[in-house]
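Researcher: I'd like a candidate sequence for this fold, 285 residues long. If you have to choose between options at a position, lean toward the conservative one.
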């Protein structure tokens, strides 16, 4: 099927993008990798009057390391994330996720910002961002603001971004000594989206092997990524050996039993949680 008629712009700067968003209002849609917007347009579920293509805005692309944060441009592709040594060193859980999104064609076109702004409930990156305690920099007519991941995902395909705002950067705190992160998922065999995915980021005490800090987030449960608080509480202060990890993973049900129907999906979540926790603990050590 063909999309409805629309106008098209390919600006080269963020200021030009903001001007177009202001000029066209709700009729404008931003195009990043295109894997979400273009299918919706072909089915006419989305009919923007004006498409603003971001691929020529070079300042929105790239990975750089600052003293306290890893900064990733919103138009950085999954393939670039998967092969970046800075990402692997600072946030290996993000490398895990980016390496297994879709297929090579998807990874070479899809972007981190496009995935986060679209907020698909089965996408991998929103849960990873929540576990890594990331924050998102948005720019609009009122200026620049930073939105914590915990406040960014609002509901099904809904974020805290305003219609006239542009997501420019993702900021991930730089990992300190004795920290590790990981992501594990059970993919749908056709789409490669996550039936269930679990991201874990933990820090061990300096003088022991006990877990000092832990954040675990799940995708595939409900309308947006979910923190597995009961799981986190079960492992805090414990040595992350196989027995402790297995027990903590079983507590994922307490975070999702009222949302998820079916033992199969809960079983997948427990398995993915064990895998992510084990790998994160190994990396922290």
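Model: Candidate sequence:
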């Amino acid at each position: 099927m063909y999309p409805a008629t629309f106008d098209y712009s390919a600006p080269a700067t963020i200021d030009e993008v903001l001007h177009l968003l202001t000029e066209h209002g709700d009729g404008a849609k931003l195009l990043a990798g295109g894997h979400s917007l273009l299918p919706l347009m072909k089915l006419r579920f989305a009919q923007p009057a004006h498409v603003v293509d971001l691929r020529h805005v070079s300042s929105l692309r790239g990975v750089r390391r600052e003293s306290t944060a890893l900064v990733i441009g919103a138009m950085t592709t999954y393939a670039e994330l998967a092969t970046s040594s800075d990402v692997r060193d600072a946030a290996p859980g993000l490398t895990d996720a980016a390496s297994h999104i879709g297929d090579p064609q998807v990874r070479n076109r899809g972007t981190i910002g496009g995935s986060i702004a679209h907020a698909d409930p089965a996408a991998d990156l929103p849960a990873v961002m929540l576990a890594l305690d990331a924050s998102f920099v948005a720019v609009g007519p009122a200026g620049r603001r930073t939105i914590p991941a915990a406040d960014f995902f609002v509901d099904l395909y809904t974020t805290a971004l305003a219609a006239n705002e542009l997501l420019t950067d993702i900021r991930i705190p730089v990992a300190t000594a004795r920290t590790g992160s990981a992501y594990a998922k059970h993919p749908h065999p056709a789409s490669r989206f996550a039936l269930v995915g679990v991201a874990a980021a933990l820090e061990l005490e300096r003088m022991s092997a006990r877990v000092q800090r832990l954040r675990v987030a799940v995708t595939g449960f409900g309308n947006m990524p979910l923190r597995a608080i009961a799981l986190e509480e079960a492992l805090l202060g414990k040595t992350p050996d196989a027995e402790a990890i297995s027990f903590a993973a079983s507590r994922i049900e307490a975070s999702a039993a009222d949302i998820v129907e079916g033992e199969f999906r809960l079983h997948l979540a427990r398995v993915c949680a064990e895998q992510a926790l084990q790998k994160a603990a190994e990396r922290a050590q």
